[in-house]
Amino acid sequence: MRKALPILLGLLVLLILGLFLGLKVGSLDTSYATVFEALFAYDAQNGTHYSILHLRLPRLLLAFLTGASLAFSGYLMQALVNNALADPYLLGTASGASLGASFSFVLLTDLTFMGLYLPPFFALVGSFAVTLVVVLLGSRRGQLVPSQMLLVGVALSSLLTALVSLIMFLSDSESQLKSVVFWSMGGFEKADWSNLGYPATALAAGLVLFFFLQRHLSVLLLGADRAETLGVDVRLIRWLMLGAISVVTGFAVAFSGPVGFVGLMVPHITRALLGTTNRFNLIACALAGGLFLVVCDLISRWIYPPAGMPVGIVTSFFGVPFFVYLLRRKNYRFS
Amino acid sequence: MKQTKFLPFWLPLRLFVGLWCFLLFSACDSKKAVAPATAAFHTVTDDLGRKVKLPVQPRRVMALAPSMTEMLFAVADTATIVGRTQNCDFPKAVLTKPVVNNYPMDYEKLISLKPEVVFATEGIISMEVAAQVEKLGIPIYFQAYDSVADILRGLRNLGFLLHRPEKGNAVADSLQDRLNQLAADSAAGTRPRVLAITWKDPIYVFGRNTLLTDKLRFAGGQNAVTEVFAQPYPALTREYILKMNPEVIIGGSFEQMEKTFFSLYPELRRIKAYRQKRIFAVTDDLMSRPSPRVVEGIAELKAVLR
C-alpha cells in the first residue's frame, strides 16, 4: 500500500490532467473557462459546450476505457499463460473481431439495422466465437492447458488473418476493401454516450472481481503446481481469468478496433513500477493503460489535425522507447 | 567466347523466316495504312514534367484511367483507341474495346494491344507502374488537373498529341461556351457552403485542393472546407464539421444519409444542411472523373444548389 498509493495518486492526477487537456483541445477554440462552464453550467444552445460534452468527452472516455480494458486483459493474460510475451489478443480476439467486421463489410448491403450500426456487433460475435474455439482446443477435460492454449491461439490467429486477407482479396469493390482497412486501424471518432456503457460495465466488473483475487494471481505466477499446494483453486481461477479477458477485450475491440501494443506493454510498466505482487497492480495497470491511450489520442490529433492518425501508430512510436528503457532497468523481472 | 569458322546451321533458316515475315507484314501494311511519315517521332513534356517521346501521329492509343478514356473518346479517332481499363464505362462505345486491368496492372495484356502511346492521370497510375510501362517500350503521357480550365487545356493538348488539333480545340471551345453560361447564371446571389462526403466511416471529404472547389465556383456554391490539408481528401472529425456548419451536404439523398451517416453521427444533425434538409445525391462519376463531362457535373451541382 505504501508503495502503491503515491503511484495510484500520481496516475489519477495525470489522468485528470489528460482528460482536462483533452476536453480543451479540438477544432472549436476553447478556453479552460469554457470547459468548466460546459461541465458545470451546460448550455444546450452553445455549440462549443455541445462539442465538449457530446464529442470530446465520450471520445476521451472511449480511449480511456479501451486502454484500460486492454491493459487489464493483458495483465491477466500474462499471468494466465505465465509468459511475458502474452497480450490480450492471444485468444484470437482481435483477429476474430477483424473477421467479424470484415464479414459485415463484405456481406451486408446495409450496414445499419433499425438505427443500429452493425460492424461492432459482428466484431463482438467474431471475437467471442473465436475465443470459444481457442478455449475448446486449448483445454483438456475441462482443464485449461495454458501452453496449449497459447499455441492454438497463435495458430488460429494466423488462420483468421489469412481469412481476412482472403475476404479482402475476393471483395469486388474498392469500398469494401477500404472499410476493412479503416476498421483495422482502430479509432475513437464514433464514440457516443450510448456505446460507452458496455465496455465500462465489463471492465468495472472485471476490476472488482480481480481486486479480491489479486493474491491468487500473484501466487499463480509461481507456477500452477505451487499455487495448488498453496491452496489456490487453479482451475476455477483460470476460467474466471479467461472469461474476464474475453469479455473485456471483446467490448474494447468491438467499439474501437484492434489497438495494438497497449495490452503487452502497460502490464510490464505497471510491474516495473509496483513490483509483481502488489495488490493494486490491476487497478494501476488499468489506470495507466487508459491514461496512455488518452495521451496517445491527444498526440495523434495534435500531429495530424483534425482527425488524427490511427492511434496504433502513436502507441508504438511513443510506447516502445519507454518500454525498452523499463525492460533494461536491472531490477525488472517478470515473475 | 569461342569463335566459329562456319555459319551456324540455323542462321540461314532464321534469315529465311525473317525475310518471309518482313514480306508478309509489309504486304499487310501497304494494304492497311497509307499514313505518311509513320516513323516520325517528337519529344514532348507532359504535365508532370516528364520528357516523353511519341509518334507525331499515333495510330494505336489507349488510356489507363476512366476519366482519360472519356477524354480520348472526345478527341481521338475512336478507331485508334485499342483498349480500356476495367473501370472505363463511358461512353457506351468503350465497352466494345478489350479490357486491360490497371490495378494490378496487366502488362501482358497491355503489350498484346500494341499501343503506340498510353495516357494516364496523376494519382490513378503510380510512377512505379509508369516506369514499368516505359520499360516495355510504350511511352506513357500524364495529364494533371487542378482546375476546370486545366481539363479544357488537357483536351486541346490531346488534340495536339493525337494530330487532331481542330477536334481538340472544337471540343474545348464548346465546353468553354457552356461553362461561361453556367458561370454567368450563378454570378449573383450568395454562395452556399457545400461539404461533399466521399467516405462515411471514418468521415473523408473533398478537400480544398480538389477539382470540386473550382467546380462549385462555377455552380454558384463554395467548398465548405477552407483549410488546405496535406491530403486532397482529408479525414474530418464531427467537431470540425459542426464548426464548419455546412449549408449543403453532398453524398447521398436525405433518406440514404439519414440511414447511413446521421445515424452513425447523430451529433451532426445540428448542422444547417440537415436542419434545412439540403442533403443531395449527385452522380458519382461526374464528381470523381476529371473528364469532358466536368461541365455536366457542374450543371448537376448547380441544379442541386438552386
From TrEMBL, chain A:
Cell compartment(s), UniProt: Cell membrane
Entry's Gene Ontology molecular function annotations: transmembrane transporter activity
Highest taxon of the lineage: Bacteria
Keywords attached to this entry: Cell membrane, Membrane, Transmembrane, Transmembrane helix, Transport
GO biological process: siderophore-iron import into cell
InterPro entries: ABC_BtuC-like (IPR037294), ABC_transptr_permease_BtuC (IPR000522)
Cellular-component GO terms for this entry: plasma membrane
Topology term for the membrane: Multi-pass membrane protein
Matches recorded under SUPFAM superfamilies: ABC transporter involved in vitamin B12 uptake, BtuC
Transmembrane segments: 57-77, 89-108, 114-137, 149-170, 202-224, 236-260, 280-300, 307-327
Family that this chain belongs to: Belongs to the binding-protein-dependent transport system permease family. FecCD subfamily.
Protein name: Iron ABC transporter permease
Native organism: Rufibacter hautae
